[in-house]
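Operator note (shift B, R.M.): manual run for Reverse transcriptase domain-containing protein requested after the automated queue skipped it. Running by hand, logging everything below so the morning shift can see what happened. Input copied straight from the record, untouched. If output looks odd, do not overwrite the archive copy; leave it for review.
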Amino acid sequence: MLSSGALPQTLGSITTTKINELSKQRALFEKRRAEIVEAAENASSLRSKAQILLEGVTKLKGFPNDALDQEDLDEDKNSDIESAVEDRTERALHVNIRRFLLQSQYDPSVSDRSLKSWISHLEEELQYLQLRHKHAKFYSSLVTEWLGDLETPSATTDDEEQQGAGFENVRRTEMQQQRETWESLVFTEADVDASAVRAYLEGLFEATTPSKQALTELRDTIRSIGIDFTSKSISLDVDDLKWVSESLLRSDLLTKEKTAILKEFMRNPAVSQEVVDVLNMRLASLDNWGWPAGCIPVEMRRQLNGKYRVFMDEDLLDGLMFQYLGTKWSVTFRSAFNAFLDTPAWKFLREHIPRPEISRRSNFTASEASQRGTSCVNNARKKMYKDDYFMTLLPSSVEQGNVAYDGDGGDARDSSLKKDKKNALETKHSLLHLLITESLVYTSLHGEFTAIRSDVKWFGPSLAHSTILTVLEYFGVPQYWLNFFRTFLETPIKFVQDGPDGSRQIRKRGVPMSHALSDCFGETVLFCMDFAVNQSTDGAYLYRLHDDFWFWGEEETCVKAWATMTEFTKVMGLAFNEEKTGTVRLVGKDAKDRQSQQSTDTVSPDPLPKGEIRWGFLRLDPLEGHFVIDQEQVDNHISELKRQLSSCKSVFSWVQAWNSYFGRFFANNFAKPAMCFGRSHIDMAISTLSRIERTLFADSNSGVTDHLRQVLADRFGVEDLPEGFFYFPVEFGGLELLNPYISFLAMREGIKMTPHGRLQKAFLQYEVEYHTVKERFEKEATASFGPHSDMDGLSLEEYTRYPETYSRPLLNAYNDLIRVPEEVSVNQTPALHRNQMALDRTVITHTKNRNIISNQWFRMSPYWQWTAELYQDEMVKTYGCLAAVNREFMPLGVIKTLKEGKFRWQS
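Run finished. Output pasted below as returned.
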């Protein structure tokens, strides 16, 4: 839940005031509406009745009179019932009716049937207006309930206590066990030999002339920047404070109160300058900086995956200083490591082609560009590794700020920004796509494919301070900074959960959670492993997302990589997490027979780690050759989701929990679809989502909207709500429930070929290319040397021998297989187009910065196009248009503020 405090109280006050004002307006509306209805019922003729209704509706809607049958009539531009809007569609209809009514005074061809039709339409408009005002009242009640949920501690019913008692005991046990493990690491000095660490680094970086030279350049860079970046030259200004603050706010490190304070700093230029002055004074005496007297409070927070993490709550100004220094050093190290990557010391994966074969191929193709393949799979691998995976946790600029490794990606359904870089979740998904694509390529070309996955056990809490400082010193960080870093790491802390009498202890190992300096230290240490694996495998890629390692290729290469990683962790005082460590071997069709024959031979001990390869809810099935969803793990989270939903005391908080868990967490952990996964992956994901929803609401044999519909009927007496109310945006008076089925189905339509079929198409295209090249070669040879030329050409087997270096069709297939299919847009119907054109201008104004439902089809994301088309009919039949209520009749600003808050899961 969002934490209680001053913010909900302030919002509650604002909301109460606005709701009271809206209540007065609704009362006035009802009075005017009743007067119009009574006058219409007492009208002396059909024409008079139509005239009365027309005048009443146009005034209630705030439209000008446009009177055609009176002179010198001032337009009523200041309706106190409904804000003046320029709804061209309805206004045009009203103006026409007014014209026709004037005509009917003289022209008998204007029949009673026409008059009755206009009366019926105007009465329907009046009913829609009444319903929209009722909906505004209902919506305000939903917001009031939400605020009340935030302001008061959640009460638990007896039934919920009985059902949740077991859960609570389990949660407390899990939390206590994880805390005990964390404390056993953090408060115990690691058994790491600093001299052994240095000897390891010397053996790694000083083994060859190119690596020695690259190391010298790296050290010079780090040392130079470290000397320049001292207390005498460090200073920041108000512009610096802006990016530092924005970066810190993204870190999820600050409490709600400190977040509000920092945002206030940013809004007030005078206060910002004061903060800058204080920070500069602290930086000027950084060599004497120390933690304040007493200790720094820490708290355990439960994550959605069930793990608990320990967050520090240091002084806000110290937090800003750490963020500034951490970001600066992170950018420095990333730049230096990227420069190292571009030196001859770093090897890159390539096929070893004998020089005579290169020469023969050049003669055969008569193309210099084809000698080593300017565009080929190996070059694509190199570029992808550098752009997407190498040191990507560190920012490339101070404006970019620290990258959240554990972010869930948020909700991109209404994003209007075109991003140049993937976020953390997209990078993880891309790695899964890359793994499956590589398995298809390897098993087709080499007959077998081996993959290893692992991560470091308790990496953040277990990282030895001596390891960090030895590595930093080896890379040239000056002693001035080493002293500060040591002080930063040795934090005096105390758990908030222990109360005022909790014990104070000094951190002796590990790095603080979600700090830019921590990311910098961790990445700097793990860079050494990146280079070690690169050297031992002759350029193969260790794909690393922080301390999450993925390596694949031929088995022999994997054995070398695993031995290197094992040696590294041993020297650095780290250990692999056995629960997340595993190996999978896949074989192509031609290799299966050979494998079955070899299985009868004596098997030596397996040098690779045992265990399965898993990510999220996915397990890599070695028999199927692709990821499958672990349904048992899903079942565990169904129970947890049910518990979290039961703890929500308001409809809006329930929707927030549902969107985070069902709409994003489940869908994200099934991984984003890709061409290499095929349609079967999407079918598996949406079938599982359907099973989750059916299981959650098995008692009522309904889905989420039926469940919420019953809740709303019980609590607020509101019934017969259309489906669109649940899924439409809050700007339209909806709950904005997320529907993950839509995005999966929209991408499914874009997959036209199976992964194996796409790869086979590339091989056939490569053969066709060979025959084209051969035909050209023979013609040129004949033209140059006569019909009996004995110029040596290439056979098909020779031409296709090194496809990862030469085959452009294979490269096209490779790029296609790792691609995420675009969401296919539904077709816009004339009915939706009319309804979009009839949208209130206030709705249009407040949706222009989001790609949600709007009056412009091309600005809507595929998700919202689908949603609008699917649910529009019921919304229009119920409310007369797409929006259930006008924006000014609901506390939209309060809703958006509450939606921005970080949802805190029940522990």
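Quick read of the result: The first strand starts at residue 296 and ends at 302. Residues 194-616 form one domain.
Leaving this for review. - R.M.
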